[in-house]
Specification:
The protein has 353 residues and is α/β, with parallel strands linked by helices. The chain contains twelve helices and eleven strands.
């Protein structure tokens, strides 16, 4: 078991490094503190021993994020008031020496709840990624038929209603919609006054339902506790999704695309899009999904167009994996023309076009 624990320690520390890079010193400090507890026969070990599926730990299990998310879920749900008192919302000058023992006590006291929470994969449904996708959508001729892969709770289904403030440009959003802010390098995108969106749907292996309190809690719990702006933006996006509705099917991307692309494309542009999702597909799913898209592309016409808009790590496009290489890539049919729309960090904080 010591070998498995060492792998977990390494993964906790790697995730802590990512939290540092993405602006969450609290989560980074928490994960490093928890890494030091692994293998000490404490409450954390009981959850890690089984892993996500009772197997040897692998990075795709994201156990560090599951544990951190479960602890934040205990805080947000009011189940662990002592822990909440030490978290950033109540203690902006937080002290990890105070957080750590309370976190371990909360894991022990709420073991059954934590185990249920950790059984589901982490999902953040980061709405700020929409700003990097926006110039890609703007390049397409409507009416648009949106098909989102790895859609989670569908918060980004209503990207056209969001407000945007990025560098020297801004776009007014719909009343009650979240405002997405980002640092922007390059010319402002050319945006229509309104986007012509005819339909919206998506799929996810484990979709979250914004009408269910437990699913809303999961969405918020996986946002890092010291990123208060992200939490408030997610709450606003959840409220928008509740009011406007979303259509997300529980299905694998390959099965879903093969079904949706089996017949003639509708008039307009069918837009398959995803953000930081493809890297989680297994090889068979990715191959089948890509084959379905390319096959549909051969059937596209000037009246029944197809687009594939993807915001993913460069490794998805065949590059070697590196720390901050994420690209927004657009392929359009008929013709299969491909271009880079933008580059961005994985949370959409910095966009370059």
């Amino acid at each position: 078991m010591s070998g498995a624990f060492e792998l977990h320690r390494s993964q906790f520390r790697k995730q802590a490094d990512w939290c540092d890079r993405l602006g969450s010193p609290f989560n980074a400090s928490l994960l490093r503190a928890l890494a030091g507890e692994i293998g000490r026969s404490g409450p954390l070990d009981a959850f890690l021993a089984g892993g996500a599926s009772n197997k040897a730990p692998v990075a795709s299990d994201a156990m560090a994020l599951r544990v951190a998310g479960a602890l934040h879920g205990l805080v947000l749900s009011g189940r662990a008031p002592a822990l909440a008192a030490a978290y950033p919302a109540q203690a902006p000058g937080w002290d990890m020496n105070a957080v750590r023992p309370r976190a371990l006590a909360a894991l022990e006291a709420h073991g059954s709840w934590v185990a249920r929470f950790m059984a589901r994969p982490p999902q953040t449904n980061e709405t700020r990624r929409a700003v990097a996708l926006l110039p890609g959508f703007a390049a397409l001729e409507g009416p648009l038929h949106l098909l989102e892969l790895g859609a989670s709770a569908g918060l980004n289904q209503h990207w056209d209603a969001f407000g945007y403030r990025a560098g020297q440009w801004a776009r007014q959003g719909a009343p009650g919609a979240p405002v997405i802010e980002a640092a922007w390098t390059g010319p402002a995108p050319i945006l229509p006054e309104t986007f012509d969106v005819a339909s919206r749907c998506g799929c996810d292996l484990s979709p979250l339902d914004v009408t269910q309190p437990s699913d809303r809690l999961a969405l918020l719990a996986y946002i890092w506790p010291d990123q208060i702006e992200r939490l408030e933006r997610a709450r606003t996006a959840i409220a928008l999704a509740q009011s406007r509705g979303v259509d997300i099917d529980k299905a694998s991307a390959a099965d879903w695309l093969e079904e949706h692309l089996s017949g003639a494309l509708p008039l307009g542009t069918s837009v398959i899009f995803h953000s930081i999702a493809w890297q989680y597909f297994d090889a068979a799913t990715a191959a089948r999904a890509a084959a379905a898209i390319y096959s549909a592309g051969t059937q596209a016409t000037d009246e029944r167009r197809l687009a594939w808009l993807r915001f993913e790590h460069d490794s998805v496009f065949g590059a070697e994996r590196s720390a901050h290489a994420h690209t927004v890539d657009l392929i359009t049919w008929p013709g299969g023309a491909r271009r880079c729309v933008a580059t961005a960090d994985p949370h959409g904080r910095f966009v370059s076009v």
